[in-house]
Amino acid sequence: MLMQDNQFRLINLDQNTEPLEIDGLIERLVALMTRMYDYHASLHQDWQTYEGWQQGSTQWLKRSLASEEWLRVLLFPHDGNTACGYILASFHYEAPLFIQNRFGYIVDLWIDEKFRGRGGAELLLNAAFDWFRHANVSRLQLEVDLRNQIGKRFWHKKGFEDFQIVMRRNLA
Hints:
This protein is α+β, with helices and mostly antiparallel strands. Helices cover 35% and strands 20% of the residues.
């Protein structure tokens, strides 16, 4: 367990050594990922997932547990065993010509709707900030879909600023 407050507790998958418990935690994480990806699919058709993606993600999460390149933390209500949020974070690397070529990357942050606005996202984010600081990372990046107004407001409120625009074009 990482930290807790009066409403929530955090569990870092990498600090848990019981194999049976890890399987249950990964199952809970994949269930939350499903809800987040379903939300993103409602924003744009390109976020549609393929049938059975959960099995591949479960296998990847199990294989990557020993990696120091990833942070996987679940959020639980203080009085419950059903995960209500999570954060996935990692490191990204740019070309070595840049002074700051290694940076932190927040892959996913999700809080189930009925638990939003109660401080859980801040607990998860602070766990990631601590993890990145411990790894001597001084810059973080993330991506937000242009249509995700909730996400954009949240990240701006947390001090993140617009930095780049990702452009694309379909060839078909």
